[in-house]
Automatic annotation (TrEMBL):
Region spans: Disordered: 466-486
Coiled-coil portions: none
One GO biological process term: purine nucleobase biosynthetic process
Active site location: C12
GO molecular function, one term: magnesium ion binding
Pathway: Purine metabolism; IMP biosynthesis via de novo pathway; N(1)-(5-phospho-D-ribosyl)glycinamide from 5-phospho-alpha-D-ribose 1-diphosphate: step 1/2
The species this protein was found in: Halosegnis marinus
HAMAP family: PurF
Name listed for the protein in its UniProt record: Amidophosphoribosyltransferase
Signal peptide, first to last residue: none
Gene3D superfamilies membership: 3.40.50.2020, Glutamine Phosphoribosylpyrophosphate, subunit 1, domain 1
Assigned protein family: In the C-terminal section; belongs to the purine/pyrimidine phosphoribosyltransferase family.
Gene field: purF
Positions contributing to [4Fe-4S] cluster binding: C250, C401, C452, C455
EC number: 2.4.2.14
Length: 486
């Protein structure tokens, strides 16, 4: 049986800044705006003014969550922020972040992107030692564990001890009193990068957040690295706390989740998507009158595909034949299938003049449940497409994501137990092709062994109950039997 992971999965955007002589609240607010695509359920900021923490966490979009007065109340030149991804169904205020709390060892604020595999075990152990939990999220587990370690060890050692105990994916921005830190899990599953601002430094999930503050990307935080920002905004210190032989970068960040204008692990997401589109043409290009993206994420794939086709002399024309209503939220997280189908129709409208009488290739970044593709094929036929070929810029998603991206359950995944031909018939396309795993690795310029491909192979780089792992990995032993690991 597949183990239920504890608590809601965290699929989020995180940020932290340390500035020399300026309030951190507004830069954090703008950075969260740039990370809005990573989470729309709640937004929050915690700052420190040298004496105490100030926090404001609210449900909803960044633009709605803060008033001018809220930002004015967030005093201090250091702080962290968070946007949280929506979960299907219920809205849970207790899981909104940053999580902030005061312990004997000082005040702590935590923003987490990722998902722990063993949070339940650590929670049980800490609860046994008298720690009281107010939410069922992973983030509070990390905060309590760190607070406990800070009673006995300095900051760097305390973080190292906690990293030795938690297993799973995490990119964290942490504020301990007025010090801001960033931590990336030993496999570097979720992104995190460092930027230099005119008067300080920033840690953020994606470099687009650095761009909006007119900063410079310094580099990615390395897997297993702790970065401590100087509290006067003058620099940062780096501690490689855990060494791992292989990384497990999430390929889906590049395919769907991240902004195309972000640079992650050395690659511009836009370039990767164009290259994935080129690979798609190489592997399964089909002659048609037009090639069109499913907006917005399909756009770079379709332009790469069309360019590769034209390089080879094919007469495929790139066209925008589907228009998106940008005020409709993500259909993916609608609670019922009926609502999802209605939402696809509200969100995407074909332009008859572009499509009528033409053979069409449609490119989307991924097929998850198949709701979008099934509806699109039908819509395109309704407005007179002569043939509809579907091309997907990722391999078939056959297994759930336990590492922080909402991917639906195995039962809901259309490709979990169907062949490509069966899926083609199900969505009603004339032809259907996915990209190969090898092409993904080529486009990312990484070895397959250094990527997390769990959702497309069913083999995970972490030790997840009931699932197969693709490497020699075991969860840390927690509890009183566990060794102290300084
Ligand atoms: P589906 O309609 O269930 O097959 O989902 C596929 C569509 O959802 C594609 O258009 C993707 O761009 C989009 N998508 C893929 N993964 C996610 C995700 N984790 N969250 C929200 N949307 C997604």
């Amino acid at each position: 049986m597949t183990r239920e992971l504890s608590g809601p999965r965290e699929k989020c955007g995180v940020v932290g800044v340390s500035l020399d002589d300026r309030a951190a609240a507004r830069p954090l607010y703008y950075a969260l705006y740039a990370l809005q695509h990573r989470g729309q359920e709640s937004a929050g900021i915690v700052t420190h003014d040298g004496f105490q923490q100030h926090d404001h966490v609210e449900m909803g979009l960044v633009g709605d969550a803060f008033t001018e007065a809220d930002l004015d109340g967030l005093a201090g030149g250091v702080g962290i922020g968070h946007v949280r991804y929506p979960t299907a169904g219920s809205v849970d205020t207790s899981c909104a972040q940053p999580f902030s709390v005061s312990f004997k060892s000082g005040s702590l604020g935590l923003s987490h992107n990722g998902n722990l595999v063993n949070a339940g075990e650590i929670r049980d152990e800490l609860a046994g030692h008298g720690h009281a939990f107010t939410s069922d999220g992973d983030t509070e587990v990390i905060a309590h564990d760190l607070a406990r370690n800070l009673l006995e060890a300095d900051l760097v050692r305390a973080v190292k001890r906690t990293m030795g105990r938690i297993h799973g994916s995490y990119s964290l921005t942490i504020m301990h009193d007025d010090t801001v830190l960033g931590v990336r899990d030993p496999e570097g599953n979720r992104p995190l990068c460092i930027g230099e601002l005119e008067d300080g430094y920033i840690l953020a999930s994606e470099s687009a957040a650095i761009d909006v503050l007119d900063g410079e990307l310094v580099r990615d935080v390395r897997p297993g690295e702790l970065v401590v920002l100087d509290d006067d905004g003058q620099g940062f210190e780096s501690y490689q706390l855990v060494e791992s032989e292989r990384s497990a970068h999430c390929f889906f960040e590049h395919v769907y989740f991240a902004r195309p204008d972000s640079r992650i692990d050395g690659n511009l997401v836009y370039d990767v998507r164009r290259e994935l589109g080129r690979q798609l043409w190489e592997e399964s290009g089909v002659d048609s009158d037009v090639v069109m993206p499913v907006p917005d994420s399909g756009r770079a794939f379709a332009s790469g595909y069309a360019e590769a086709a034209q390089d080879e002399g094919a007469s495929v024309e790139f066209a925008e034949g589907l228009m998106k209503n940008r005020y409709v939220g993500r259909t993916f997280i609608m609670p019922t299938q009926d609502a999802r189908e209605r939402a696809v129709r509200l969100k995407l409208n074909p332009i008859r003049d572009v499509v009528e009488g033409k053979t069409v290739t449609v490119i989307d970044d991924s097929i998850v449940r198949g709701t979008t593709s099934r509806q699109l094929v039908e819509l395109l036929r309704d407005v007179g497409a002569e043939a509809v070929h579907f091309r997907v810029g990722a391999p078939a998603i056959v297994a759930p994501c336990y590492m922080g991206i909402d991917m639906a359950t195995r039962e809901e995944l259309i490709a979990a137990d169907a062949t490509t031909e069966e899926i083609r018939a199900e969505i009603g396309a004339d032809s259907l092709s996915y990209l190969s795993v090898g092409a993904v690795a080529t486009a990312l310029e990484e070895a397959e062994a250094d990527l997390c491909l769990g959702c497309v192979t069913g083999e995970y780089p972490y030790d997840i109950d009931g699932e197969t792992t693709d490497r020699d990995v075991e969860r840390p032993v927690v509890g009183d039997a566990a060794p102290a690991d300084d």
